[in-house]
Amino acid sequence: MSHPRIRIAALAAVAIAVSLLITACTGTPAPGPTTARPTATSVAGLPTGVQQATDVPTDVPNTPELRKNVALASCEKADGGWRAGGTASNPTDTAVDYTITVFFTTDTGTVLGTADTTVSVGAKEKKDWTATAALTPAPKTVCVLRGVG
To answer: Could you tell me where the DSSP H helices lie in 25-110?
Structure first.
């Protein structure tokens, strides 16, 4: 057998061994306890008392046709947390319900809390909205309009 054939055979054997190891390590995990998860956790690098949110939604409704009608205009401290606010406009001839989701983050993107609100806007009307989360704010807390559905 020539050297190139030996190399190809050796590489094939290594590839098969690696795939078997990976397959053997990806079994179904055992079910864990059903205790309530905390909503926040301390993270290195955050100021004392500021905690990272642990219950962050991953499937947030976000429809571009609706999102373009919602503006985030304010981001400010509120009693016991932080508040975002803005306006929702309805350019259509029928009433629209907007579900607005806001993430409150540090200036480097760590999520501290989330909030959502639903606002009903009549045909050709505009309404103010607010969403508030209970959290300890970071020195530079940012409001992110995460989704509108």
So the answer is: 64-67
Residue range 115-119: mean pLDDT, rounded: 98
Q: Which of 142, 138, 148, 120 is closest to 61 using CA atoms?
A: 148
Q: What angle do CA 27, 33, 39 make, to 5 degrees?
A: 110
d(CA 83, CA 5): 67
Q: What is the mean pLDDT of residues 119-125?
A: 99
CATH of domain 40-148: 2.60.40.3230
| Torsional sign, CA 32, 35, 36, 42 | negative
> Which of 97, 131, 134 shows the shortest CA–CA distance to 113?
134
User: How much is the average pLDDT of 118-130?
Assistant: 99
Collapsed DSSP state (helix, strand, coil) of residue 16: helix
Q: 81 near 134, Cβ under 8 Å?
A: yes
Helices (H), 25-125: 64-67
Tell me the C-alpha distance between 114 and 133, whole Å. Answer: 6
Domain residue extents for the chain: 40-148
